[in-house]
Write a structure and sequence with these properties.
Blueprint lengths: L1 H12 L16 H6 L2 H4 L1 H17 L3 H12 L8 H17 L8 H18 L1 H18 L3 H17 L3 H17 L3 H18 L2 H10 L10 H5 L16 H12 L4 H15 L4 E8 L2 E9 L6 E6 L8 H10 L3 E3 L12 H6 L3 E9 L2 E10 L8 H52 L2 H10 L5 E13 L2 H5 L4 H21 L2 E7 L2 E6 L8 H21 L11 E15 L5 E5 L1 H11 L5 E5 H7 L3 E11 L3 E11 L1
Parallel strand pairs: 10-12
Antiparallel strand pairs: 1-2, 1-6, 2-3, 4-5, 5-6, 7-9, 7-10, 8-9, 10-11, 12-14, 13-14
Helix pairs in contact: 1-4, 1-14, 4-5, 4-6, 5-6, 6-7, 6-8, 7-8, 8-9, 8-10, 9-10, 10-11, 11-12, 14-15, 14-18, 15-18, 21-22
Length: about 650
């Protein structure tokens, strides 16, 4: 059903419809489907109906009709699978807005600006397909703003770019709109120039209904160009009157539309395969692409295959096509047709042709912007002279479109790869950023900061703060080089990080040789004191084991003191640049005093911590000792686990 919409749209342009604004004819009947409630049953086909009606409205000069249908198709974009249709919908939406009645549609300028913004994105990524469309929308925006010199520049840019990329229909449309602009301003000379160009382009495209419409609207401006039959008739039945009717215009239009609508390389190849099987009579096809100085057999198909087979084999390694035929076409950039290749005096000696007794062969160069993009190879091994002049004409008309479609598909494929690579890079960078943030902040705080841009301070009623430092650190460090000192401190603190992680303890910071961490936040843990003592024991034992392996008198053989106090703290993030997670309160100060009053390789705890761990650890009461600015404090040494 989807193909029938495209086919009926083509038939409308060819004059084979009762009303060229409605998709009713031999291929499709929109009235019946809409009456059956197609909008609810099939959103995709509903989108296609409104989309093609907007296209017809723009080409046949009914902007209000085009905009009404563009607004309807806009609501159904979620049903669209092909990216090209999304971009074309935006293009025709903007074009309709440029000519629609602003009294009926007050937002026409907004619609046009929105479409231009979208088209700039598409033109940046695929200028071959969309740059000329952007120019045309910009021309209309300039026209509406009475900037006519700028409008003419954009019309010319659009026409030239469309012709360069073989978008004949859109070159014709741009020329027609430019002609109408100057006709309305009374500049008949310029109007005639553009309208005659539009007429010739529409004739090359095969849009017979448009020829009739233009002929009746501008008979004086088009005098000498118009076929008598076109001038005498309306849009209906014209297809049989023009010289182009010797070709199957419907098939050409359908094939061109199908090829231009695919940007995925494999899908484009399959469209090409269907075109060959339906219109040429080949039972074998191959696509050869240029790759710097070499030829690559990119894909091949034989009758019975549902899809083109992607090969990507150097031509010299392939045994499935005649190399002499391909190299001849590459060298001359001319088509080659052989009615009975096996008996041909020049090419018949090719090994492949001799082995397969090949009969009909056709090779067409695919040229884009003067450069050989590739070669389309066709073969019929059953009949002699299977490829006639009509086949050749058909392919000659399509060859440029095929070359452009291949170029666009490969460009899109490279773009997709770049997008995937960039997405992976961004994902990796995000992970690095997240990991770095988690090295600075607790996970919950980091998440809150990322989500809201700030983190609220929190009070915790019961945690255990651990404070450590190295005995005689300043004196020993004077005997070491700066590099040695940093390496040694880093090795100790790295191990401390592993130990605190093991016991779900949050590292707060290091101050010189001091290490500050806290157990029981940000996730509240009733066993915070026990975990703090276990971690402190492992830290002390690690430092002792390192010192035992060093030579006597080695200044890096440190001894450590540890203090632990349990109580309430407040936590939060401070600073805007180089922000840091920190804790405050008397509990922190007391832990620092306990560390100062500790001894080498000893873990000194307060009475509050003692009450939380006394059942699990053998503790030695030290009495009430004086702590700076704290008075006397009950202190205990942790000896071992009971």
């Amino acid at each position: 059903m989807y193909n029938e919409v495209f086919r009926q749209s083509a038939l409308n342009f060819m004059g084979q419809a009762g009303d060229y604004l409605k998709l009713n004819g031999q291929a499709f009947n929109e009235d019946q489907l809409i009456a059956d409630g197609i909008e609810e049953k099939n959103r995709t086909i509903s989108f296609l109906i409104f989309f093609h009606r907007s296209i017809l409205g723009n080409y046949f000069g009914d902007a209000n009709f085009a905009l009404e249908n563009s607004l309807k198709s806009e609501k159904l974009l979620d049903a669209v699978l092909a990216k090209i249709e999304v971009a074309l919908q935006s293009f025709h939406f903007g074009l309709a807005a440029a000519y629609a009645n602003p009294t009926k549609f007050p937002k026409v300028k907004k619609y046009l600006s929105k479409s231009i913004k979208k088209m700039k994105h598409w033109a940046k990524n695929a200028p071959e397909n969309f740059q000329h469309k952007l120019y045309l929308l910009q021309a209309e925006q300039a026209r509406i703003s009475n900037r006519f010199n700028q409008a003419r520049d954009f019309y010319d840019l659009s026409i030239n770019a469309a012709n360069e990329q073989n978008y004949i229909q859109e070159a014709a449309l741009a020329a027609e709109l430019a002609g109408k602009c100057y006709y309305q301003r009374g500049n008949n000379t310029l109007a005639q120039f553009y309208l005659r160009n539009a007429y010739q382009s529409y004739r090359d495209w095969g849009a017979l209904a448009k020829l009739s419409q233009l002929a009746n609207a501008y008979p004086n401006e088009l005098k000498g160009l118009i076929d008598n039959q076109v001038l005498a008739k309306d849009a209906l039945g014209i297809g049989r009157e023009l010289s182009l009717a010797s070709l199957d215009l419907q098939s050409i239009f359908k094939a061109s539309t199908a090829l231009s609508g695919e940007v995925v390389f494999e899908k484009m190849l399959n469209q090409l395969m269907h075109i060959m099987s339906e219109n040429i009579g080949a039972n074998k096809a191959a696509l050869i692409l240029t790759n710097k100085e070499h030829l690559i057999l990119a894909a091949q198909w034989t009758v019975g295959q549902q899809e083109m087979a992607i090969v990507n084999t150097p031509l010299q390694e392939s045994k499935s096509i005649p190399k002499t035929v391909i190299h001849y076409t590459e060298r001359t950039k001319n088509q080659l047709i052989l009615g009975n290749a096996w008996l041909d005096q020049v090419h018949g000696k090719d090994t492949y042709i001799q082995e397969t007794k090949a009969k009909s062969i056709l090779a067409i160069p695919l040229i884009n912007k003067g450069n050989l993009q590739g070669i389309l190879y066709l073969e019929n091994n059953l009949l002699e002279n299977a490829f006639n002049s009509e086949n050749v004409k058909f392919l000659n008309l399509l060859s440029s479109q095929i070359a452009v479609s291949i170029d666009n598909a490969m460009l899109y494929e490279n773009l997709e790869k770049k997008v995937m690579e960039r997405t992976t890079e961004l994902s990796d960078e995000k992970k690095k950023s997240d990991d770095l943030l988690l090295n600075i902040l607790p996970a919950e705080t980091a998440l809150e900061l990322k989500k809201f841009g700030k983190a609220k301070p929190r009070r915790y009623e019961s945690v255990s703060v651990i404070f450590t430092d190295f005995k005689n650190f300043t004196k020993n460090s004077e005997k070491m080089t700066p590099e040695e000192l940093v390496v040694q401190v880093d090795s100790y603190f790295t191990k401390f990080d592993e130990i605190t992680h093991k016991y779900n303890i949050e590292k707060i910071k290091t101050i010189g040789d001091a290490y500050l961490c806290v157990s029981g936040l940000p996730v509240i843990d009733k066993n915070h004191a026990v975990n703090a003592v276990l971690a402190a024991i492992e830290m002390r034992d690690y430092v002792q084991s390192v010192a035992a392996e060093k030579e006597p008198g080695d200044p890096s053989a440190f001894e450590m003191r540890i203090g632990i106090h349990s109580g309430p703290v407040v936590s939060g993030v401070v600073g805007f640049k180089k922000f840091a997670f920190d804790i405050w309160g008397d509990t922190v100060n007391t832990a620092a005093r306990l560390e100062t009053q500790s001894e080498a390789s000893k873990i000194n705890i307060s009475s509050s911590t003692y009450e939380l761990v006394k059942d699990l650890f053998n503790c030695e009461y030290r009495g009430r000792l004086l702590a700076k600015n704290k008075g006397e404090i009950d202190m205990y040494f942790i000896n071992k686990k009971t």
